[in-house]
Amino acid sequence: MVTASAPGKVYLFGEHAVVYGEPAVPCAIERRATVTVTERSDGLRVQADDLSLNGFTVEYEGKATDRPDIDVSESLVDAGMGYINEAIEQVKDATGAESVGFDVEINSQIPLGAGLGSSAAVAVAAIDAGTRELGVELQPEEIADRAYQVEKKVQDGEASRADTFCSAMGGAVRVEGDDCRQIEAPELPFVVGYDGGAGDTGALVAGVRRLREQYDFAADTVEAIGDIVRNGEQALADGNVEELGRLMDFNHGLLSALGVSSRSLDAMVWAARNGEAHGAKLTGAGGGGCIVALDETAESLTAMEYTPGCEQAFRAELDTTGVQMEAE
Ligand code: MEV
Fold this sequence. Notes:
Helix content is about 40%, strand content about 25%. It has helices at about 75-95, 120-135, 140-155, 160-170, 200-215, 215-240, 240-255, 265-275, 300-305; strands at about 1-15, 25-40, 45-50, 55-60, 100-110, 170-175, 180-185, 190-195, 280, 290-295, 310-315, 325. Helix 1 (about 75-95) packs across helix 3. The longest helix is centred in the last third of the chain and has 23 residues, at about 215-240. The termini are close together. Residues about 60-70 have low confidence and may be disordered. The site of (R)-mevalonate has 13 residues, from helix 4 and helix 5.
């Protein structure tokens, strides 16, 4: 039995545009997914205590199949299971152990499909725990690459390396195509608002692709997000939190234009802005889930707590620890 954990993330800038080769800057946060993998003779049994699913157990490949007890859509559960299946395929590929089975237990502080990188964190932690369980220790860069293959497969070939690299390495990272690196970041006063919902990453990414193909101005919008990221990198290097906030506001506007925001995400963004936030934007694929704001005061937290549609608001610290083994 091996337990490994990996952090979730917020996007300071660049989600969606990163799928088309623009740069993005995600930052790991101190909310982690913890995965325990135990070898068994055959089959796969998955137990999840908290993925906004009220806990579920799925057992198959010759064993009983229970439909999870869910409070989110079936497609989200199928997607969640897809990430775990593919992570296990990567474990088998990395270790050459084709015929083994696994018990997989997931405990996550990261809501599923809410823009905080739950699927990447689960895939990263599962690959680390699974390979270690079979006596193989992979470097974080290889875990990131294998977790990226998982996301690509589940998201029909439309994924960037951003979420998985960030989760495997920790801290702030910059991703542009296959070029992934860790970057310095000043202390960033992240505040997260969560509407209790989720978006379907695959469908949202496909929607942006359609717009981009249909309208030149949508393609320009994607490129403009890349420009924001490049400006944001300079603001990060200068430690200019006010400028970072302004750029986040701009980034949110462009994501809205691309159709990936929602009423509750917009409401939380505006609540944070009406508080003391330097800026606020949705994080991740959108459609529902989370926004991130920069605010060192308690104002935007309070403002969001009083906002209809906001289920939870919390402060999030940058997590400089990427994937790590917790127990064996
Ligand atoms: C999802 O967390 C981020 C997207 O940019 C998709 C991806 O990068 O794979 C929307």
